[in-house]
Description:
Blueprint: H1 3-15, E1 45-47, E2 56-57, E3 70-71, E4 106-107, E5 110-112, H2 125-135, E6 136-143, E7 151-159, E8 163-166, H3 168-177, E9 184-190, E10 195-204, H4 207-213, E11 223-224, E12 231-238, E13 252-253, E14 265-270, H5 278-283, E15 288-293, E16 296-298, E17 307-311, E18 324-326, E19 331-339, E20 350-354, H6 355-366, H7 370-375, H8 378-388, H9 390-398
Parallel strand pairs: 3-15, 13-19
Antiparallel strand pairs: 1-5, 2-11, 4-5, 6-7, 6-9, 7-8, 8-12, 9-10, 10-12, 14-15, 14-18, 16-17, 17-20, 18-19, 19-20
Amino acid sequence: xLPFIKTFFVYIGAIGMVLGALLFLENTGPDPALxxxxxxxxxxxxxxxxxxxxxxxxxxxTSTAPENQIxxxxxxxxxxxxxTPNTAxxxxxxxxxxxxxxxxxxxxxxxxRIQNPYTSPPFPFETVNENAxxxxxNIFCTTNATSIHPITASGVIIDPRGxxxxxxxxxxxxxxxxxxxxxxxxxxxxGAPARSLWEAEVLYIPPVWIEKHAKDILEKRSTGTGxxxxxxxxxxxTIDDSPTPVSFPYLFxxxxxxxxxxxxPMLAASYPAEFISGDTAYYSLYPISSxxxxxxxxxxxxxxxxxxxxxxxxxxxxxSSGGAVVNAWxxxxxxxxxxxxxxxxxxxxxxxLTLSYIDKDIKTQSGFPLSEFQNGNIESxxxxxxxxxxxxxxxxxxxxxx
Length: 402
């Protein structure tokens, strides 16, 4: 029997519930041209409001956009510097690190732009979109259990060995699926429409995030600021037992502070699914890309650029969690994490964790910078996580199940 048929009955029982755990994602901003002008790289500064403590809601996003269509941003802008941020549920080709010509400088809650950040000119956004789509994945988790909500979310491959960067509120389902006590299956999908291709395992998820949010595992819409809300997965094998690719297309993360600045054009790419049915999410889920602009910098508490606001784009809906925010040089500078409340995507404010924040926080939490996970011994890192961290974290999640 074909592998697709084997898994069909696992999926079909949960398809009608998939949208119950969708993540929010979308872009808003000025009506953009397909290739908006790149801002002058003269030194400039911006202030960084502190994110308010009260948490907001998380969600996933879906889309029925045709393959490779870039959607225009909705001309709407919401400034939420002092309001509660919302979070989104969700669920990369090795390149040489770009040279740094001017280091960023953060003083008194002010960030300085990096001058001449790359030696090469920016790409057309058609090329940026192609590169982003090649590295974008859909994380699709299904279950026959009535207590756990099926989810659909996004992620980005950041390493040719198949390392996926996504949100912790997405990866927690992959982690829980590693327990034999739970009827939960997570598949990595890709393409337009998304097709089931691989199984994945958790490479790293911050224990501090699970410890704080395990209690929310049964919620259809979780809440949070986005702090520590990142995780790494590794593509382990194909669903049909065929060989995995020798090398995966990926986006190279740029972890420097100030690499993205206010009004810089960005491409946001994800698999939103909030406004479609469960059947459509399973059979006809398409990625969406939007060109938008950085609206605002936000920090958790240290005057660094931890979160960027990119407005109310089409991806500001459930399913977009873990999606990519990419600059004009095809460098990954953020992953979609939260969104504000709103009846439509135009009324929401989509936010992304910066790669500079993720790099600093993962070093604080694990002892290793992001580059170590990209360039280190991946089998050793997985074994270390599975032996030292995973059992206790899985148990925290199991304790919340009825």
